[in-house]
Amino acid sequence: NNSNLDCSIWPMRITEQTRYALRIIAVCAQKYPERVKVGDLSKITGISPYNIFKLLKIVTRAGYLDSVRGPKGGIMMVQSPQSLTVGQVVRALEPRFQSCAPADLMMAAAPPHQDDIAQKVNEAIGRGINAFLAELDEILVSKLASNS
After folding, report:
1. Residue 34 or residue 109, greater confidence
2. Residue 97: C-alpha distances to residues 11, 33, 100 (Å)
3. So what's the pLDDT on residue 122?
4. Is 60 exceeded by the pLDDT of residue 8?
5. Is the peptide bond before 95 cis (omega within 30 degrees of 0)?
6. What is the C-alpha separation between 66 and 112, in angstroms, rounded?
7. What's residue 4's pLDDT?
8. pLDDT, tens only, 53-107
9. Most buried one in 43, 79, 91, 120, CB count within 10 A?
């Protein structure tokens, strides 16, 4: 039950970790279906190899990238960049979007201590969060990787 989460206080922004992960995924999308070495990812993105390795644990656990060690190893996308959206990645990497269906909870019946204005504010914010996520759902990872 997520009703005890106060979604109204969560900022509408994406963490730097998710931004970095999207950059790494976009580079892998450019090279798909080939593997990319961590050193090459670091040069292309400007993200340190240490941070890439930290992010890889999260992104591979989410099922978007696969990592193989060794001389023939590297990182590659698990699925086609045409079938993955930015919204899916954001939901997987941002706990606040996983653990709370913002508009559904925020637009539910107001708790007894919440006045009519507070309920309307929460509803407006919930609609905004849903619109934000819906827009990210329209952007394919392949679009991040394209030169146009």
Report:
1. 34
2. 11, 29, 6
3. 76
4. no
5. no
6. 48
7. 41
8. 999 999 999 999 999 988 889 999 999 999 999 999 998 898 777 544 544 554 4
9. 91
Can you list the pairs that 93-100 forms with residues at least 24 positions away whose Cβ atoms lie under 8 Å?
A: 93/15, 93/17, 93/18, 93/21, 93/58, 93/59, 93/62, 94/14, 94/15, 94/18, 96/7, 96/10, 97/133, 99/2, 99/5, 100/2, 100/5, 100/7, 100/10
> Which residues, 6+ apart, have CB-to-CB distance to 123 below 8 Å?
103, 106, 107
- Helices 116-137, 86-93: inter-axial angle, 10-degree rounding: 120
Cα 31 to Cα 25: distance, rounded to the nearest angstrom: 10
Phi, psi for 101 (deg, rounded to 5): -90, 90
Residue 45 or 133, more confident: 45
Cα separations in angstroms, 62 against 55, 85, 99: 11, 13, 15
Here the tokens at position 52 are 């890439």
Kindly tell me the burial class for residue 148, based on how many C-beta atoms sit within 10 Å of its own C-beta (0-12, 13-18, 19 or more): exposed
Question: Is residue 124 over pLDDT 90?
Answer: no
